[in-house]
Amino acid sequence: MSTLEMLALMIIVVVLLVWRISWLASRVQRATTRAERAWITLDAALVGRAQRAADLVMLPGIDPATALLVLDAAAAALEPDLCRGERERAESDLSHVLDTVDPMLPASPSELASERARASICRRLHNDAVATALSLRRRYTVRILRLAGHTDEPRPFEMADGSICTLTAGPPDSPPSSLAYAQPSMQPSRELLQSAKPPTVIVRAAEN
Amino acid sequence: MTDPRRSLRIGMVCPYSFDVPGGVQNHVLGLARYLRQAGHRPYVLAPGELGPSAAALDLEDFASVGAAMPVPYNGSVARVNFGPLSAARVRRWLRNGKFDLIHIHEPITPSISLLALWAAEQPVVATFHIATPRSRSMQLAGGVLRAAIEKIDAGIAVSESARNVVVQHLGRDAVVIPNGIRFDDFGKRPISGSPRPSQQPRLVFIGRLDEPRKGLEVLLAAVPLIRQTHPNLEVIIAGQGSRPLPSWCRSLGTITNEAKIALLGSADVFVAPQLARESFGIVLLEAMASGAQIVASDLPSFVDLLGPPRDERRLGEVFPVGDHRALARAVLQVLHYANPLRKARAQQAARSYDWSSVGTAVLATYRAALSAAPTGRMREAIG
Asked: Tell me, what's the ipTM?
């Protein structure tokens, strides 16, 4: 085999190797991006759920003790600057509180049910995206060549969804319900949001 | 994030032809109809031509990839498309459709579904219908398929058992959203009393006659035992295929949707004796909606629908898979003690599978997938 042939063979091998590595790098990048965007989606869904929970206070006929219980759990979940573990605990607590008070409510608002279902769907998709990203990032080639760059490793969001049924997952564009409390409900949630300052990720989510 | 009110252009890929009836095909048609009613634009790509069962679909919204070829796959004969010509057609359809989102059914089958998943540059939602693929071939093909599986932005499984397969064999997860039924078509009959004045109890089976896993053998072995007590029992069988049948059994062959609605509406007992691999019992739900009493084998997906065997609140009787004596006992039991309360509960349960609920859950998953999916340019880089 002549030197020229050797050289040509080596070039072909290198080109194939580079092509394969760049393909893998783009897969890693896509998986990481999906995990990041899935987190933005989940975060928005969780905020929506907590707001709807806080709206329960306006339900006609709700007793003050139940209202306080729900509002406390919702406000804890909407608290800004929570670290991941605290947020997971606060959201789980909110699920448990909602499960507990549900049979005692004078009416079970469909908006809350659909927000809960939406949060559960978003969480499953988020954790699925995270698992995909992690399995790629833990590959030998990816670690050795640092194909994931300097992006943080995504983490699954672990919380109790509570007893919900995904079938109640009305999309945000579902027609507004005719329930009496539906109209004034915007008031407390806006106040809550202002006092709790929405996490900045929401703003980014709106821009995308 | 996407505007939640925007009307979506959705490209749906169905790997099986609408020439023949089937669970996946019916699901695609039902979903397309729901999406159009909800103000979205569904388009469907499938093999073959639109049969009469697909009348709900506009001709202009349907694209064919050509005739499907029958090949043995996963224990039965699948009629699917593959090869470079199909791949080119799939790519052209994806390019020209300007879809916001692609919804692929049964993505991991050797068919246009896998081709579409491979070529898609848009966000991808995939629905898994099968309960058990061959894990060996999954593992062997794993390396090749992994990159394609990674492209799914949101997975949907039609049952918990289908989800288990996704988790165990594909290393992904999926939202569980069951198949939908059009409840109003079936739920017209009043629940009280016998459907027909006649004294002949009517037993109905719907399913392919020539496919052993549909379990017709078990039913045929059980009927003589039931007829010892109910000599005038009427046995009506509807489904594709032919085979020798005993004289006391009436076969209607392939039936239209209208005939199916009428048949289920006239049934006293609906029997689902399936032996294996039934990911979702859609006919079971339709029978429940029609107000028939249900007797089914204890496959996980059936137990999911009906409740455990000894539960007070179960919606039908289940018997051990393949046990014709137990089937006969269960049928005798529901014939002796007609239970209108249970019928009402079963009907109520079936109502929650109406497209109005199932469709909104699918739409919520679309929205979540759209806002989580990497943007277009990044997808093209992979392509």
From this structure: 0.81
